[in-house]
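Morning F.,

Quick status update on the modeling queue. The single chain you submitted on Monday has been processed. Sequence for confirmation:
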Amino acid sequence: MPEPAAPDTGPPKPDSGRRLDLAAGGAAFALFAVAASIGAYLLSRSPSLHVGWPPLMADWGPHLGPGTPTAVAVAALAVGYGPRLAERLPWRAIPWAVWAAAMAWTWSLALVDGWQRGVAGRLTRPGEYLRGIDRFQHFSSTVHDFTGHILINSPSNWGTHIAGHPIGAVLTFVGLDRIGLGGGAWGGVFCITVGSSAAAAVLVTLRLLAGEGRARAAAPFLVLAPGAVWVGVSADGYFTAVAAWALALLTLASTRTRGWRTAVAASGSGLLLGAAVYLSYGLILLAIPVLAVLLCTRRARPLLYVLPACAAVVLVFTHLGFSWWQAYGLLRIRYFQGYGGVRPYAYWIWGNLGAVLAPAGVAAAAGLRRALAAAPGAFRQWRRRADPQEVAAVVLPCAFLLALLAADLSGMSKAEAERIWLPFTWWLPATAALLPARDRRRWLAAQAATALLVNHLLLTDW
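C-alpha cells below.
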C-alpha cells in the first residue's frame, strides 16, 4: 500500500537549513562576482555597458573619509547591541530608534566621500534635478510644457533625471527651493532624512502583518541595510520612503476595524501611492505588494478610500497639464535614444540581479531562500485561513521579488538597478528575520561589511 501523505506542517523550523542559508549567501556573492568579472571583460572590449565598475554605477577608488570612523562605530554598535535592544525596548520606541539609527548609518556612509562629494554636490551634478529648477519660474507654463522637452532632440531638452521621471520628482526640489531650502546641501539633507525613515515604515508594516517578534528580529537589519549607501544621497531614497509609508498606511487600514482611523489611513495611503507614481514611473509596480497586503489581510474595503485618493492625485497633475501616459511614452523613446539603446539587454537582464545584491546584502539572499522554500506551505495555509502572520512573512518578500523581476524583464532598468530599485530592495534585508536567531548577528555583520566595503572601495555615482 502507498504510504500516507505527510501532513502539512507549514514553513520549516527556523533552526533547519543553515547550510542552505550559507549556500544561498555564497550563491549571491558568486552572482555578483560573475557579473563584475564578465562586466569588466565586456567593458574592456566595448564601452557599451556605460558603467564604470559593472554591474554598479561606480568607479574603483579605495578611500577613507570623515565618515569612516562613525560608520565603523555605528556598525559595531548595531551588530553588538542592536539585536538585544530590539528585543528589550518598548515597541513604541523601536520605530523611532530604528529611524534614528538608520539616519546615523546613512549619514556616516555618505560622509565617507566627504561633505561636498558625498552630500552637498550629489544633486547638483549635470543631469540631476537641481540643474533644472530655475526653469520653473513660470510654473504653470513649465509644467504644461514639460513633456515637450523629454526627447533628446527636443528644444531645451531636460537633463537625464528630470526627463527620466514624472514631474513630481523635480517639483519636490522646486518646492524645497521655494520655501528657502534650495541647493544641494538642503536637497541632500532632505533625501537622507526622509529616505532613512523607510526603515521605520517597513518595521511598522512587518509588525502589523507578520507579528511583533519578526519585526523586532528584522529591526537591526533595516538599520544596517547596505542600500543606505544609495539613500545618501539619491532622490530614490526619498521615493523609497514614500512607497514604504504608503504600504504601511495601507496595512494599518487593512488590519483595523471600521472607523474614521481606517478611512484616514487608507486615504493617506492612496495619496502616497498616487504621489509615488508621479515620482518614478517604475513605482507603478507597487501594485504587486499592494495586492499582497490585501491578500494577506483578506480585506478589500480600504480600496474604497485608496482608489479615490489616488485618483485625486492623478486629477491634480492632469489639471496642471502633465499627462503621465504621454510622458511615459516619450520617456521610452528618450531611453532608447540614450544609453538604454546601447546597453546590452543580454548582460543586464541578469547583471541587474547581481547589482541588486549590493543594496540587499547576502543576508537578504539567505532570507529569501527561506521565504521561497516556505511559499508552497504558506499558500496552503492562506487557503485554509491558518496562521496569517506566517503567511505574510512569506508572501510579502515574494511580492517584492516579483516586482523586481517584472522591472528587470521590462528592459527599462538596464544598469543603475542598485539605485532605481531601492523602493523594492529595501524590504529584502527584513527577510533575515526568518533566519535562526543564533545566526543573525553574523549575518548582520555581513550586511554591515557589505556596505562598508562598497562605500570605501568604490566611488559610487550616488
